[in-house]
């Protein structure tokens, strides 16, 4: 990297940090001053599965998220809608779309970058061990996050930080 390019990159990063600061100053209120949310929680996040049984084996058997229901998708005859318990009253759901060529996972604006799910540290360590044993490609970051892709390419993070915290920062 040339010195000029590095200088431009540093100025660009400084401008981005200044913009974050401006937005934070204008919109972020201290916890005691924030209104309560109009939502009561995340009901479910729905991803797409190309193979229902393979998805069940991955999420239930490898990750330890119990399958809670498997029903027909009301919006597409023959399609399944199935749910996994990811703790704290939250569900991870999937659809399959037999006969539709929905294409591979792609990161697009407005699309899913990754889904982060909190786990107790001992359970997190157990899943990482199972990944090693099963040969699942994964990357550990900051000793509390493990990133991997599911059988259909969705990016998932399992994080050993408590809900409402991220890498030592309270975010809720």
Concise account of the structure shown:
This protein is 29% helix and 26% strand.
Are there runs of 5+ residues with pLDDT below 50, and where?
A: none
Silhouette: globular
Oligomer: single chain
Strand content: 25-35%
Structural class: alpha+beta
The number of helical elements comes to 3
* CATH superfamily annotation of the largest domain: 2,3-Dihydroxybiphenyl 1,2-Dioxygenase, domain 1
Strand order of the largest sheet: 1-4-3-2
From the alpha-carbon coordinates, what is the Rg to the nearest angstrom? 20 Å
Helix content: 25-40%
The name of the CATH architecture of the largest domain is Roll
Mean pLDDT, rounded to whole units? 91
Largest sheet: 4 strands, mixed
Q: What's the CATH topology name of the largest domain?
A: 2,3-Dihydroxybiphenyl 1,2-Dioxygenase, domain 1
